[in-house]
Amino acid sequence: MLIQNLAKPQRGLGIIELMVSILLASIVLAGVVALILNISVTSGTNIKSAQLQQALRGSMDYMSRDLARAGYVNWFEVWARYGDFDNCSNPASVTGSLRDLNDDGAINMLDYHQCIAPVLAQFGTVSLAQFDTAGDVSSGMKTPPECSTDCDCILYSYDHNIEWATHSGDFELFGFRWNEGRLQSRSGAPATADHSCVAGDWVDLTEPVIEITDLGFSLVYFDDVGTGKDATVFPITGGVAGGPSTTCTPGAGGLSDDKCLWRRKVDITLSGHLAADNEVQMDLNGEVKIRNDFFQTESP
Prior knowledge:
13 strands, 27% helix, membrane, transmembrane
């Protein structure tokens, strides 16, 4: 019997083909895993950046809105009620009427000005200060404390409860400062506390997950007012307005009506990073036009 060997076709993959397939699949899988990890890391970084951006921009917006109110006074309450305390009205029981304060025989805006000028002076001042070590209240204040550029702290006030007088208990003596990696706001103080950068009650505006690495306030006056140079002062001497100028001292010329009209803009720089990842950082710049000009009638 003739036995014929018939070659059967090979079924499936050989060992070499199988190893090549596994290698290719591993390469593809590694690429997919790397892509997923990269997307995950990028998403995490974006979330962290968004968290930092939201915190810093929120802080910048809050400072800008509040600083813009500096110097506000409820002038009608001064007119109507100031006499209840300082005999500005005539009679004190009649609201909205003034007496002849300067005894010139007429009741006019000169009397009104004489009535409210002391109150305006309470709210008008905006002052900046610098710590001995930037961002560290415990290091003490530089001497003299006045500062004009890149200052650690700013102080201001406005008539928060619309009743014309500044009171620590009514939280009308405000401020912002940079201290120990935090942005802080002055929230109040005992009645005897000074309105200063090292006194009163201060609260953190930023969470511990955010570290503030720089906070600077600048208020520089210009005599060549123009784009970016909105802060200036107009001296009023002998009833005649001069300026614009960079300096002014009420009464410097020996005249009782030597006064200063200050127009102010504060520049703010704010920088920070995540406390857990200092690679995620951000720098912001802002400027605030203080809406209420300061009519200064006497030196502080």
